Amino acid sequence: MRLDGKKIILGITGSIAAYKAAFLLRLLVKEGAEVQVVITPAGKEFITPVTLSALSGKPVISEFFGSDDGTWHSHVDLGLWADVLLIAPATAATMGKMAGGIADNMLVTTYLSAKCPVFVAPAMDLDMYKHPSTQKNISVLKDFGCCIIEPGEGELASGLEGKGRMEEPENILETLVDHFNQKKNC
């Protein structure tokens, strides 16, 4: 398989495109990757951890602490464990937090601790994507070394047409396979 032995953190944020993350997760596992899902609280409003856990074979991490037993989820350990951090979908809010170092959730703290290449697949409405603040944050993330997987164009959840659709899972998979085969970040 093309991703045998690769350790991937799949970060999922609060976007309608989170449903695509389930397909992406399935493809990553099918290709032999070990995938740890880290989901934001808003992400759980769009797709359940139960679905993601069933597909990954691992408990989904969302909070810093486990339920009532005092278990601490170490963002540092996650950041050291991974060969790649992939955030798909990435909302404007999460990218803004990443660009500004606002470590207020498990996903962003993991990003700030990651020692591996980071791939970001934005997903939002076209006006949000075009907004100068979003474009500035994308530029900052690129300057930080993140690989931005450009969103596609087409019908958006708002009913509008334009750029902002999260890239299709098959294309994201190919981007990661190319990265590992050619050892290039973007």
Automatic annotation (TrEMBL):
Keyword set for this entry? Ligase
Kindly state one GO CC term assigned in the UniProt record: phosphopantothenoylcysteine decarboxylase complex
Biological processes, Gene Ontology terms: coenzyme A biosynthetic process
Where in the numbering of this chain does the Flavoprotein domain appear?
6-179
What Pfam families does the database record attribute to this sequence? Flavoprotein (PF02441)
Presence of keyword Ligase:
yes
Q: Tell me where on the tree of life, at the top rank, the source sits.
A: Bacteria
Do the record's keywords include Ligase?
A: yes
The GO molecular function terms of this record are: FMN binding; ligase activity; phosphopantothenoylcysteine decarboxylase activity
Q: What is this protein called?
A: Phosphopantothenoylcysteine decarboxylase / phosphopantothenate--cysteine ligase
Annotated source species: Tangfeifania diversioriginum
